[in-house]
Amino acid sequence: MMNRTIAVMLGSALLLISLLAMLIRGDGNRSTTSTSHDKPLMVYCAASNRAVMEQVRQAYEDEFQRSVQIQYGPSQTLLSSIEVTRDGDLYLPADDSFLEIGRSKQLVAEILPIASMQAVVAVSKGNPKSIATFADLQSSNVRLVQASPEGTAIGKVTKAILTNLNRWEELDRATLAYRGTVNEVANDISVGAADAGIVYDAVLHTYPGLEFLELPELSAGVSQVSIGVIASTQQPQAALHFARYLSARDRGLLRYAEHGFHTSAGDVWADHPSLSLFAGSMLRPAIEETITAFEEREGVSVDRVYNGCGILVAQMKGGQHPDAYFACDNEFMNQVHDLFPQPVEVSQNELVILVQKGNPLGIARLSDLARDGIRVGVGHEKQCAMGWLTQNTFREAGVEQSVLPNVTVQSPTGDMLVNQLRTKSLDAAVVYLSNAAGSADVLDAIRIDGLKCSIATQPWAVSKESRYPSTAERLFTKLSSADSKEIFAAEGFQWKIDPSKSVAE
Amino acid sequence: MTRTDPHREGSKGIASQRTRRSDAPFFLVMGGISSCFLLLILLLLLADVLFTSWSDFSAALRKPEILAAMRLTLLSCTVAALLSVWVATPLGYLLSRFKFPGRILIDTLVDIPIVLPPLVLGLSLLILFHLSIGQWQLESFLRDRLGFPVTFRWPAVVLAQFSVACAFAVRTMRVTFDQMSPRCEEVARTLGCSRAQAFLHIALPQAWRGMIAAMTIAWARALGEFGPILVFAGATRMKTEVLSTTVFLELSIGQLDAAVAVSLLMVVMAMAVLLILRLLGAGVAA
């Protein structure tokens, strides 16, 4: 008996070892069969997006030989996993409200919009209960189910819009049961446990036995599906590469549209997109570092063209259309309003009188520039915002005629005037405070008080013709972040973005 | 099914006829009540069979993802069940045979995975592996130092299944040893056996039936495990997807046919494995 006992024990131990070896070998096989040349990407994805996500993953792996591992589950469960493990690269919940929660917990960095879904009423094919209006949902012979207003996106949306219409309570009374997910609602109708339910239209794509009705009461019920880059990812470029592929109008969005989602105009796909940016020269020191960091993280190029805004506007009117324009002043953005319909004011910069260190000529106000023998430099009134503002300021201060004879240089950029001051070929220059930021050791800045027109406001806008509007928006998100704000402040700019509307805090 | 009373052997035919008449209602009532439950299970299975079709079932069987999930399910459940028996046998024996300080506490701790909601267990495992103690973290240590990451990989599947299955196995083994008289082991010790020898010579051979029962329960429990796996191991296709997560994933995109087909596959697998284990148990006991 002893021998038999030991034999069985040894046998079971050997069986255990063999099974573990099979598990390890199976795992290894999967790793080696993967066509990845990099570390696989790990995506946390809402289970409801599985059908479309699997198609995109397959296409992406085929096109780039990079392995993508997708973890499916309920959105909230996945978010909890990310919070605990601080692992993974991307997160795609069923509704972007989860991404906002993730962002508030600093778990999510970039967010890329993908598609939207509309709240509708799902019924069996042929609408056997003849439901046509909102009132029909409250009929005693209609078994209505809804997704939980506390735990699901569709439930939250439905409750919010119907509460606004004062129709929530009546629907709540008519609801037979609340379910944990939107798919459970659809499943109930599919198996005949319910007659109607409120779901997203895109969810019904995989339910051939169901159809939907659009009710005016639910028309405001729209949810956005977006993908977020997990803040702790070790491979942001690769993560953003897949996210850009998923949200590209000629790649992932095609699959989303096929699955019944409403897609908006995403970027055109490019393995390594090149974003063109026109920006006023004054902004260079404030944005250059942020743009370089953006390029590195995103794996994209930003072709910057810094110049006087008048020159930039002329180039755009001549046919050059950048993806984004960061103007020195609203005046120059207004001149290309047809190309950039939605500008956002980012910062302000004020004109100052820049003089040699210690102010040896005792210049205290604009009128002092009119004194005999003073060599003054100003911006070119046509070529740059600074020149245009300087002219306005002179006019407003009533010194235009007296100072102009002393103007020896008109330059398209403030930096050139600063250099001329440093070489002492000028006694004074009217430039932006930001132009003087790096020359405090050799130059002094004198404020121009009491003239509102001496302050320039810098707006940012993305071209309506841009091939990469989403990437350009993400660049703006970086430029409006807290880190960027600090750089702007250090360069002498004042921040203009409303903190409550800032998207990257 | 009938029991005879030796003292009434040879009693009159009328009396025996009365006994037979009184047994019929007894078996009718008992059998009727019992068959209600059996009927419920059969009706559940029948409903599943009627809901799906042979083509759906065979299509599910042909999918490489389902085959991978089936393979992982079989392997992980068996590993979890074997590990459970290996752990449950000594633990059940100690709890059954010895009174020691903290015994009640250990007994209670063993039951915790049984009473905890499955999702909580998964979350607890996830937190355990990612809890930072200073600069040290279990997951990082296993991944970076030993090259054996656990979370979101197959070891997490096995661990999640084992955590629950082992608790049931311990309970079964404890009951098994409780029902065995310690007298034989004590006699063996008076004849010169050490505790280990008494355990190996006497206790273990007598506990075979209980060990098979523990393995059966552990395997079945591991098969049905879902919540902890979803949280701790995730549901990555071809990687950590077991059949229970396949059912969830199919349901979540409205593929009811596929979900039912996989459910039926689980029923078939469970019946086959449990039947083999029962027959094995009967063989060993014989």
TrEMBL record, chain A:
What sections of the protein cross the membrane?
Answer: none
Lineage, top-rank taxon, reads: Bacteria
Q: Which InterPro entries match?
A: ModA/WtpA (IPR050682)
From its record, what is one biological process in GO terms? molybdate ion transport
Q: Which terms does the record give in the GO molecular function aspect? A: molybdate ion binding
Which Pfam families does the UniProt record give?
Answer: SBP_bac_11
Under what name is this protein listed? Putative binding protein
